[in-house]
Amino acid sequence: DNRRPVDFNSRREYLDELVRQEDQGRQSLVEQILGSWRDGRVKLYVTCKALDARNARRLVFQEGRYIPLQVVGRRQGHVLALARQREGAWVLAVVPRLLTGLVSSGTFPLGTEVWGEDRLLLPRGAPEGWLNVFTGQRAEMSGNEKGLPLSDIFSMFPVALLASA
Predict the structure, then answer these.
(1) Digit-coded pLDDT (tens) for 125-145
(2) Nearest 5 degrees, angle CA 135-CA 126-CA 157?
(3) Taking the CB of residue 161, how many other CB atoms lie within 10 A of it?
(4) H/E element, 150
(5) Nearest Cα residue to 122 out of 98, 109, 139, 110
(6) Phi, then psi, of 24 in degrees rounded to 5
(7) 146 neighbors 107 (Cβ within 8 angstroms)
(8) What pTM was computed for the model?
């Protein structure tokens, strides 16, 4: 609910704590903030990490070519994805949608149980390796098709921002 005044002091404290916790391990941080998602730290974390990624890859975000991406598999209607590409640098944004048909309320759409063998197809020339900005996990293309398994992309966190590794 964003209709009440923002408590900027608590947000600064949350942000400082997120930075400290990230230094101790991103996986435990991600598990913790997902476990208490109602406190707003997930949104703050996503915003912070996305802005860091944008600052680190400014030209890709400002001048990069926009490439809509396709998902193949049973759950293809449950994902939106796009790439930005400039010279050899790439960034992928991948988000789930229409989740009530996939998971029960209060459950995050994570792992093979949700995504099965569905995959995000990547265009010719896309890198083989990717780094998830939110989780620190690496993703590699596998299989005969040029793409990434959604179960890998969404193994720990329900949204993904992947940068070419």
Answers:
(1) 899 899 999 999 998 886 556
(2) 20
(3) 22
(4) helix 150-153
(5) 139
(6) -90, -5
(7) no
(8) 0.90
